[in-house]
Every structure is written in C-alpha cells, then in structure tokens.
Amino acid sequence: LQQIGGGTFSKVFKARDLLRNKTVALKRIRFDINNSESIKCIAREIIILRKLDHPNVIKLEGLMLVDHDSSTLYLIFEYMEHDLLGLSSLLGVHFSEPQVKCYMRQLLRGLDHCHTNHVLHRDMKSSNLLINGDGVLKIADFGLATFFDPHNSVPLTTHVATLWYRPPELLLGASHYGIGVDLWSTGCVIGELYAGKPILPGKNETDQLHKIFKLCGSPSDDYWTKLKLQLSTPLRPIYPYGSHIAETFKQFPASVISLLETLLSIDPDFRGTAASALKSKYFKTEPLACDPSCLPKYPSSKEINIKMRDNTRKQASQIRRTDEAQAVQPILADSSPTKPMQVSLYSYGFLVS
After folding, report:
1. CA–CA separation, 25 vs 78, rounded Å?
2. What confidence score (pLDDT) does residue 190 get?
3. In a 3-state reduction of DSSP, which class is residue 193?
4. Active-site entry in 17, 83, 112, 123
5. DSSP strand pairing (119-120 vs 2-6)
6. Is 162 domain-assigned?
C-alpha cells in the first residue's frame, strides 16, 4: 500500500494479506546470493526473530520469496501504526510521565526477554520502537542483532548502533561487550523523551565521545585495560572529570536522573540489567506507569513521515529563495518520496502497490 520505513539494504512496506484479510508489514531485503556474509546476516536475523517470543518484541509471521527474483526476500511482520520517534514528533503531542513510563516499561520488558535469550539488539533507538493502535510497544529491526556469550569471550564487531545511541566502549573500539550496549542506548531513548530531543547528537565519532565524556564523566584508569582497548590512548581525556547528568537535566524528576546515571554509566558493568532497571525507583515513584489501554489514540506516524515533512519544508524553502522575478510554477509536495512500487504478489496472497 505504501512505504513505511527502510534502511541501507531494506525497505518496509505496508501491505494487505489477502488470504488472512489483514494488514501486515513487508520488509524487503535485497542480498547477493554469491556473498556468504550477506546470506549469513539475513539468516541470523531470521533465526533470532524465530527464537524470540514476547509481547514487546516484534513478531515475524512468515517469509516470502518472489519467483522471478532470487536475490530478494520478504519478511512478513505484524503491522504497527507508529514508531516512537514519529509519534513523539507529531505536532501538538506531549507525552505525560505515566505515558513515558508505560513505554519504557514495555521497552525494558522486551529487552529483558532478548538478553535472557542471549540476544543483543545493537541498534536500540526511538525509530526502532514500534507502537500499535492499542499502545503496545514492540522492539523491532533486528538486522544488527546477534547472539552473545554472557562471559564476553567472543569478539564482536564495533560497527553497530546508530551514532547518537552508541556507547563509549564501541566508539573506543571494544570488541568484547555485552548487554551494556543496549542499556546505554535505552538510556539515550529515555533522556530523549524527557528532553524532547536527542541528548547526545554528535557530528562524528570523535565529537560523540567528547559529548559523552562531557555529560557522563571520564573513564576510570582501569576502564581501559578491563575493556581490552588497544587504540584508545589518543582519545583519553587529559584531565579527569565527573558526571554532569544531574546538573544538565536538573529539570527532570529525581527518579529519572537516577535511572539515567545508571544506564549512562561510562563503565558498562555499572549499567545493571533490564530487569534491575524495571525494579528501580523510577517505576515505583508516582505518577506510576499507566496501562497501554489508557494511552491516547494518535494518527499513524513514523520516522519516514518526519523525513517527508522535512523534505517538503526544504522544497518550499528553496522555492522561496528563487528569483522572485522569475516565474515559478507551484510545486505540489508528493505524498511519497519515490514513485509507488508496482509489484503484483497475488499468487502469494499479498497486494503491494
């Protein structure tokens, strides 16, 4: 029916399952059948999604291949009306504290399920947190997810997590890491919801580290050897300094600051677990989290809607800057960033247009 998301190697479409008469999301993945690494990554994502089964984790409902295109695979998911980034960016929308706590409780419950099953998500951010019309939040996009060793003995890649949500150990090149990477990203999401904007918007990896150390403090001396960091010496702060989270976010409730100071600890061992975060004072302090069924109803909104809105504004701004003496025909903002994809999948019981 329309494109509702996408990344470098995939696009997500809203589609209609004609056999089951329901709306679903189709994630179209293009891959090179001669590239074993590409196939390995796709297989890992599917295996992880099959293993996870929780109300706050997106459900993989099936797979689909197209006869004439062996390099394209469709993953079939339940359809979700919103993502957290798109929802929080709606004009006039302001989340109440019970609402934020409701979303964060669901996020941490889903994350606890992932970690209990030895799965690292590795790309936690507000646009990967989907919300349906009933207010139920589900963790989605497991394209960078992997299984992990609880003892951190198996080296993993550092090229994961979106920059603004990436923990310091990954920026410093650590290849032995665990659940702390997801907890750091979760702290960034919580801070973003209360601040109304990303709290660590670095321009590049060096700037990102500078912003992290300035907000959260510099690492202790044993941090560098404990995480087996080899290339980090030039990036070590010359002078040690402490955390400024409480000072920076003094307008936040005390229980929020306490949770942020834990989740945004420079040392991943001090970030705790998703289960311990659920037991924190944050969720015991009034106002308490509301039930998802009590949440307001919103028009469908996703990250792609924000991008389309921003593109429309840029186009309008460019028109205004043109020479007023030159005749300019009015430009109507297209409702989609690309031409509609014309694909007929009737034989599979789907209609995508």
Report:
1. 6
2. 97
3. helix
4. 123
5. unpaired
6. yes
Q: 277: buried, middle or exposed (CB in 10 Å: 19+, 13-18, 0-12)?
A: buried
Residue whose pair of structure tokens reads 């709606």 in the numeric block:
90
* Domain enclosing residue 209, as ranges: 82-294
Q: Is the distance from CB of 169 to CB of 267 less than 8 angstroms?
A: no
> Residue 156 is part of a domain; what is its CATH number?
1.10.510.10
Query: pLDDT: is 305 or 19 the higher one?
Result: 19
Query: What is the distance between the alpha carbons of residues 198 and 189, in angstroms, rounded to a whole number?
Result: 8
In a domain, 77, yes or no: no
User: Residue 10: which of 108, 123, 97, 138 has the closest Cα?
Assistant: 123
**Span 232-264, pLDDT tens digits:** 556 777 777 789 999 999 999 999 999 999 999
Residues placed in the known binding site for ATP? 27
* Domain count along the chain: 1
Distances (CA, A) of 277 to 67, 112, 161: 47, 10, 21
**Rounded distance, CA 118 to CA 41, Å?**
17
Residue 192, CA distances (Å) to 84, 151, 197 in order: 11, 31, 5
pLDDT of residue 149: 86
Distance between CA 83 and CA 88 in Å, rounded? 9
Q: How many CA atoms lie within 13 A of 41 on its CB side?
A: 16
Q: Identify whether 326 is part of a domain.
A: no
In this prediction the pTM is 0.82
**Per the annotation, where are the binding residues?**
27
Distances from the Cα of 353 to the Cαs of 23, 77, 306, 334, in angstroms? 13, 17, 22, 16
Decide if 170 is inside a domain: yes
Catalytic, 112? Answer no
Determine the 3-state secondary structure of 76 from DSSP. strand
